[in-house]
Amino acid sequence: MSEASTTPATAPKATVEVTAQDLQGPGVVFCPNPKMPLWSNHPRVFIDLSHTGQGACPYCGTLYKLKAGEVLPAGH
């Protein structure tokens, strides 16, 4: 009997719930975020949450989503 192993490809990705105060622009967050450890840094990418309320980092797969009940501020 073999045990199921978790490899990086099948490991669950992190999910980060963000509030309107965490946004870096109108509906945008960046990854890596300030809470991530230095060793896991990759080039900074901006992730747009304004359409669906969530988005994933193309480098590390971290899912960013608006916290339940959060409303994006009105655009400029």
TrEMBL record:
Entries under Pfam families matching the protein: zf-CHCC
Classification via InterPro entries: Znf_CHCC (IPR019401)
All copies of domain Zinc finger CHCC-type, residue ranges: 29-64
Gene3D superfamilies: q5lls5 like domains
Protein name per Swiss-Prot or TrEMBL: Zinc finger CHCC-type domain-containing protein
Native source species: Roseateles aquatilis
Lineage of origin: Bacteria, Pseudomonadati, Pseudomonadota, Betaproteobacteria, Burkholderiales
